[in-house]
Amino acid sequence: MFSLQEAEDNRTSKKQLLSSTPYAVQGSLKGRRLVEKKVPRGRSRAANSGLGKLVQGLRLGAAVTMLRCGSRSLGCLRATFRSLVQTERRSVSLCIDPSLGLNEEQKEFQKVAFDFAAQEMAPNMAEWDQKELFPVDMMRKAAQLGFGGIYVRTDVGGSGLSRLDTSVIFEALATGCTSTTAYISIHNMCAWIIDSFGNEEQRHKFCPPLCTMEKFASYCLTEPGSGSDAASLLTSAKRQGDHYILNGSKAFISGGGESDIYVVMCRTGGSGPKGISCIVVEKGTPGLSFGKKEKKVGWNSQPTRAVIFEDCAVPVANRIGSEGQGFLIAMKGLNGGRINVASCSLGAAHASIVLTQEHLKVRKQFGAPLARNQHLQFQLADMATRLVASRLMIRTAAVALQEEREDAVALCSMAKLFVTDECFTICNQALQMHGGYGYLKDYAVQQYMRDSRVHQILEGSNEVMRMLISRSLLQD
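Structure (tokenized):
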């Protein structure tokens, strides 16, 4: 439980987040009525709020990529920039407006994230994907807005926001680049683990540079022989004096080789979950090495490697919590991680729908815009319905997790299962509705589809989510 002073610090942090950035409405939230910025004539309110800017950013990014790669004709480039100019006058339908149901403060956080996504992420996401670039500088800019430790306490540099606030922010950021936002969400989960389960010395040592993203973090649970069956992990940590000697390896680690801090689940005791502990391993520790960079279908803006421990000596002082508490810590982290990654899927799906709306209005077949085709109208309606249902499910689960309700684990599992499945369906359908253009890397819909596919596998596969849900339903 937070103290009254911590609560006041959290409010102060929120004010600083909104007042210290060019992406936010300037000024304190305390003791004043929020005054909405006036929307210039001829521009929709949605376009002004960041959603219209998103499509602009995506089209600008595509155009820049075309210029660099020489992949399209001059006529196509002209059409791209013409669409870019016209986008500002188009609106995003109210029925899928992501700000519905949010309070004024949450709408401000959301606008900050949408604007940042449109200006700093969307124009670059294609290049990050194609060149497999890890956008360190951009993420440090995001950290200046408070996105490096969104739900970390304020006394160690975090923003002190709620799980619902966090979901809203990740959804908005993911519209700009789903892959990079997913890494930021994992980084946040690692910072939260240290903040929540570490002692004061550990919190003040590790959390401040994580919140500024001076240092990056990776979560190390999965092994070559244990994915869904995480309790059977084999990486060992044998105590010798004031150090643990780690041996073993972790697989599919996001940020592997690039991150500075590795939150590692390892075996300090016997078999099963009670023998697992959580230890922070810092980059540069002798005995720590990394495998080759994996070639992936999506998530190419974040490196994925094996993390290898060979007689890797780590101070006992780096153990988070007590011995045997590691599996509990890992699962607590994943409950939030499932909400986070589902929120990233939501952002990808929302962006895909916005782009599909644009495409159906502009693309003509048989002498009329595709938007007049009833079959495509019905498909778009189904996509929008899935999107809104997914958003409601995520936000319900986020509130349950924040309130530490008994049904939180099941609701987080339901949200992760439903949302990642439905949002991938949306992204895949968006690609189909773009026709052959959707299969070209000049068009963003294919990247949203590729980047969101893995969300059905990680943070506990969707098959495991069904196990957790059914266990909740059938327990005595």
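The chain has three domains: 4-211, 219-324, 330-474. DSSP finds 15 helices and ten strands in the chain.
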